[in-house]
Amino acid sequence: MAACFLVMLWMGVPSPELESFFQAAKQGDTEVVQAQLAAHPEWAAARNKRGRTALSLAADAGRDAVIVPLVEQGADVNAVIGKSGWSPLMYAAYRGHESTARLLLNFGAEADFQDNRGVTAAMLAGYREDVTMLALLVEQGASLNLRNAAGENALLFAAERANAQVTAFLLSQGVPVDGVDFSGNTALLKLAPKGNRGAVEVLLDQGADVRVQNDKGQTALMLAARGGHMDIVQMLLAQGADLDARDVAGEGVAFYAFRNGYTPLARVLIQCGFEQDRPNRRGMTLRQLAERKRFDLEADVSGQVVWLR
């Protein structure tokens, strides 16, 4: 009967009683969970229509008291959950439930479990800017240098959101400052367009290469200009960023600023020495591009660049 019931569950046959069990696990109703497990011990491994186990729901909600009877009844702490392939620990890490994560780890959860895209709990913790969770995972043996399907380690995965504290912690644990993903991006390249000054400063203080180019030929300077971040541009130039670098389309930093509507920044870059008459691969110069948009890039007698609508 139990085997038949489990087959029905896998087929997605509705069961109000089972749904109430999942709901109790999610809400942390320990008494209900224990009572239903006593009557249906196989429910510890059951899944709802989305492929979620009661343990994953409890971990997601930080219901530590519910986790204990589920695991004691045989719930798999490393079960692959749903389409994403997350583990219960990954849900706890993503939500910032430190005590839940510690409990799961004590029950044998794999600190380095990777989902269908190669993402780990440490990557999720970094993305959520949770240094406390990161420290716990490292304490339990998690590697920060595992790669996901995009070639990102914990620093690269978190870089688009990471604050200075997360960035500093990851670097202090030996994550290479200039590691690259499968597209040739370093953490600096990922952070530059976001305008996160503090995190950029941490990377620069640790010797990040400001001249590295990704597979598209883009530099951190170009990407900072694309985001209109004057302060990041100034920091990168002060560290020796190449003002004359060009991407695979033959466009340089001032193109990036101008194309994205940051005209004052493009003006500053020209004043700093960007060569506006050097054409891109289509034969168009920045001056010609500006003229198309009815800008005048001619310098006046004082040498100042004047841009007029």
Describe the structure in brief.
The protein is mostly helical. Helices cover 48% and strands 0% of the residues.
Describe this structure in words.
It comes from Acanthopleuribacter pedis. Keywords: ANK repeat, Repeat. This is Ankyrin repeat domain-containing protein. ANK repeats lie at residues 50-82, 84-116, 117-149, 150-182, 183-215, 216-248. InterPro entries: Ankyrin_rpt (IPR002110), Ankyrin_rpt-contain_sf (IPR036770). The protein is an all-alpha fold. The protein has 18 helices and no strands. Helix 3 (30-39) packs parallel to helix 5 and helix 13 (197-205) runs parallel beside helix 15 (230-238). The termini are far apart. The relative contact order is 0.06.
- H/E topology pattern: HHHHHHHHHHHHHHHHHH
Query: Which structural class matches the secondary elements?
Result: mainly alpha
- Percent strand equals under 5%
- How many strand segments? 0
Q: Biggest β-sheet, characterized?
A: none
Our Rg estimate from Cα atoms comes to: 26 Å
Average pLDDT confidence is: 92
Low-confidence stretches: 296-309
Number of helices: 18
Span between termini: 79 Å
Report the helical percentage. 40-55%
Global outline: elongated
Organism: Acanthopleuribacter pedis
Keywords: ANK repeat, Repeat
Protein name: Ankyrin repeat domain-containing protein
ANK repeats: 50-82, 84-116, 117-149, 150-182, 183-215, 216-248
Indicate the topology.
Blueprint: H1 2-10, H2 16-27, H3 30-39, H4 54-61, H5 64-72, H6 88-95, H7 98-106, H8 121-127, H9 131-139, H10 154-158, H11 164-172, H12 187-191, H13 197-205, H14 220-226, H15 230-238, H16 253-259, H17 263-271, H18 286-292
